[in-house]
Amino acid sequence: MAPLNFMAAGVNILTKSFGLFSSASLERATRAIRAAKPFTTFAGGPPKRPLNGYMRFVQEQRPQMVRQHPDFKAIEVIKKIATRWRLLRPEQKRPFEKAALADRDRYKVMLERYKAQLTPAQSKALVEEQRQKRAKRMAIKKKRELTKLGKPKRPRLPFNIFMSEHFEEARGITVVAKMKSLQDDWRKLSIMQKQVYVQLAEDDKVRYKNEMKRWEEHMVEIGRQDLIRRKETARKATKAGKNRAKSKVAKPKKAVAKKKRAAKKTTKKTTKSTVRNTKKA
């Protein structure tokens, strides 16, 4: 259990530090690690969730694809299989989807049997475990949404910047070994040597603050105040957004007001002229 958690943590740290993996690769890696982890803390555990139609197709095609393309990386193999799946006609997909539906029905029956044998305490723990999983899925979904909306990346720490610069030449073969050697190298640096990375981290904080201000103001403009960090920030961003909107409307309003004033002056002049002419007559 612990090694799997450590692997997941390592992948996340590297991704946040300097984008070693893409977001899609990270998601796949995390899913694979979660799949390797036992579903529950109870002996025996509940039945495994069945594969959907697409995953059954992947399971069937992968060995053949690996034989045909031994030099392909895992991600390239999956991309090839995904392309094949998209090109299948509905009737070609049907056997996989039908088998998946049958597995799902069996899974539901087995899950009910499993729940029936649990004690109240175990049932409560299982519900909590499922709640945590749903919360994780929601967090991943929200993160994906924020990425699409262009939310700025958080500022990096001095060590993260040091690690991104020296990861390639770091000692060790595995990711964990490289990280450990970089930690040792960081500890050996003098205060003056570390100061370079401290200053870079401070500059990155300024970059993040400015980018977040602009991003939050934009979120207010498009009606996504729910994504603003704090109420005070939301209030300021809303005010800034309204001010910008007012400035866009201000010019046309001023032009209209100017025309009205000019029209009033013309009317007054015409009235005075008419009065003078009447008196003369």
SSE inventory with pairings:
Elements: H1 2-18, H2 23-36, H3 53-68, H4 74-87, H5 90-116, H6 120-148, H7 158-166, H8 175-188, H9 191-221, H10 231-280
Helix pairs in contact: 1-2, 3-4, 3-5, 7-8, 7-9, 9-10
Q: Can you describe what's shown?
A:
The protein is built from ten helices and no strands. It is an all-alpha fold and 281 residues long. The chain starts with a helix and ends with a helix. The relative contact order is 0.06.
Q: Determine the strand fraction and express it as a percent band.
A: under 5%
Structural class: mainly alpha
Average pLDDT metric: 79
Instruction: Please give the alpha-carbon distance between the first and last residues.
Output: 109 Å
Which stretches of 5+ consecutive residues score pLDDT under 50?
A: 1-9, 13-43
What is the string of helix and strand elements?
HHHHHHHHHH
**Rg estimate, integer Å:** 32 Å
Main beta sheet, described? none
What's the count of strands?
A: 0
Helical stretch tally: 10
Multimerization status = single chain
Principal-axes shape call: extended
Q: What proportion of the residues is helical, as a percent range?
A: over 70%
